From TrEMBL:
Gene3D superfamilies: P-loop containing nucleotide triphosphate hydrolases
Gene that this sequence comes from: cmk
Source lineage: Bacteria, Pseudomonadati, Pseudomonadota, Alphaproteobacteria, Rhodobacterales
Cellular component annotations (GO), alphabetically ordered: cytoplasm
CDD domains membership: CMPK (cd02020)
Catalytic activity: dCMP + ATP = dCDP + ADP; CMP + ATP = CDP + ADP
Residues the entry annotates as binding ATP: G9, P10, A11, A12, S13, G14, K15, G16, T17
Family: Belongs to the cytidylate kinase family. Type 1 subfamily.
Compartment list: Cytoplasm
Transmembrane segments: none
Stored InterPro entries: Cytidylate_kin (IPR003136), Cytidylate_kinase_dom (IPR011994), P-loop_NTPase (IPR027417)
Protein name per UniProt: Cytidylate kinase
GO molecular-function term, one example from the UniProt record: dCMP kinase activity
Length: 194
């Protein structure tokens, strides 16, 4: 049985950074599931059809990391049929040996509820807005407003809302370095594997 690590949390909390580091450390496959929603939104047209027809090429588009693509993703991510169309791909990805790490919003709650390791990564709103502003060369106040809007939409939707699974362990990256966050995650995985 492949080992699955589920990582969820709000925007710019540090999920992807931890997921990539764990994938390197353990030689596991890594899927940033946010890209599926970003690519679906970027395709335009009917989002349900876009999700059903998503191809690996769609995930290679260069404009997927923009703040606009993030906003568009969170709008189409509230549509149940869009989410349903993306489930099989995520399940197949999670079934790869020797293990897989998926990061997103609903991995521990909906996609991989039996994962032996579930992390929920958080950071203060101000820290997250500053990180996104640094990454995108944007205004921190504007990033803060956008993160608020996106987090609210992700938390309040009816289907697969953003929330920690009951058995998720929380990592707060507000006041720790990236190396410390990675070390905390590895310590949690080591305990689960022992
Ligand atoms: O995947 P997610 O949107 O949750 O966040 P990320 O892309 O991993 O991290 C967002 C930004 O915060 C990146 O520029 C990271 O380098 C930075 N970061 C940080 O400064 N401290 C951490 N403990 C984790 C991430
Ligand atoms: O990197 P960041 O955390 O800013 O965003 P992302 O992980 O790329 O996700 C973009 C949007 O896709 C989120 O705001 C969610 O609305 C949606 N999403 C989701 O609904 N479920 C997932 N498993 C991953 C992303």
């Amino acid at each position: 049985m492949p080992f699955i690590i589920a990582i969820d949390g709000p925007a710019a909390s540090g999920k992807g950074t931890i997921a990539r580091a764990l994938a390197d450390h353990y030689g596991f496959h890594h899927l940033d599931t946010g890209l599926l929603y970003r690519a679906t939104g970027a395709k335009g047209g009917d989002p349900i059809e876009a999700a059903r027809n998503l191809t690996p090429d769609d995930l290679q588009r260069s404009d997927l990391r923009s703040a606009d693509a993030g906003q568009a993703a969170s709008r189409i991510a509230a549509i149940p049929e869009v989410r349903a169309a993306l489930v099989d791909f995520q399940h197949r990805f999670a079934a790869q040996d020797p293990g897989a790490i998926l990061d997103g919003r609903d991995i521990g709650t909906v996609i991989c509820p039996d994962a032996p390791v579930k992390l929920y990564v958080v950071a203060s709103n101000e820290v997250r807005a500053q990180r996104r502003a640094d990454e995108l060369g944007a205004d921190p106040a504007e990033m803060l407003a956008q993160l608020h809007e996106r987090d609210r939409r992700d938390r309040e939707r009816d289907t697969a809302p953003l929330r920690p699974a009951d058995d998720a362990l929380i990592i707060d990256t507000s006041n720790i370095s990236i190396d410390e966050a990675i070390a905390a995650a590895i310590a949690i995985v080591e305990r689960a594997r022992a």
